[in-house]
Amino acid sequence: MRVQIIIPILNPDNSFTTVLEMLSRQTVPNNILLIDSGDSQITGQFEKRSIERGTFNHANTRNIALEYTADLYLFMTQDALPYDSHLLTNLCKAFEDPDVVVAYARQLPYPYADPIEIFARHTNYPEHSCIKTKDDIAKMGIKTFFASDSCAMYRGEYFRKVAGFTKDLHTNEDMDFCARAILDHKKIAYVSDAKVYHSHNLSYTELWKRYRMIGEYFRNQSWILTEISKYRSAETTGMAHAINEIKFLFKTAPSYIPESILKSLIKFIAFKSPF
What we know:
The chain has helices spanning 16-24, 58-62, 87-93, 115-124, 137-140, 156-161, 173-183, 204-220, 223-228, 235-252, 257-272, and strands at residues 3-9, 30-36, 47-50, 72-76, 81-82, 100-108, 130-132, 151-155, 187-197. By secondary structure, it is α/β, with parallel strands linked by helices.
């Protein structure tokens, strides 16, 4: 199996060398492409492409993968650290099912993650693997389409067939791809044995910017919510997450409850904001 790893980077810190070291230890041979939109001084046995920072785009930049013929494409972010040397092996196993076109890894919180982020990782990336199909929309709602390009592997043949990610998406290119694939009667695999460390302690400003972009995405790609609304309300998923987060914090870190409420409010307003 030819595995092409694609990692967009922007002035990564010294910890990125550990990411590259862990990828070099994988039990599945692979080639690494770094797409650099900064001025990173990184050397090693991999290919590097430089692009102008202003041209970076979550979908279009990753679509550079279409220039490479591979059985599998693994998209990662510079801050996702492989847990062990079996990350690629475990992801590859999912593609033994010919209908699986995306397999994404479990994300573990870094030791410095705050309780809110720990809850998010444990909720979105549980201990047990699953295969998601169109039949799951009624039960799982919008989460049927969930995946994360912080560490996700794509079947090369299918990725090229559909011309990769939808052009010009500034966020949610992974969810958009999975939604189109699910509605095309393909399968999405969540592989809990494939693990990376990845988490963020976002500031209020960063949270606002992120959810404004997500809100903009759903306004421009309203077909996803239209599809989900045939079965259930997408907003109930966000409300349930906020409530369960407070319950978790009440038991583990009550002092974070005010921050949790404020962040949930910021997410909601930013998501709804048209400006």
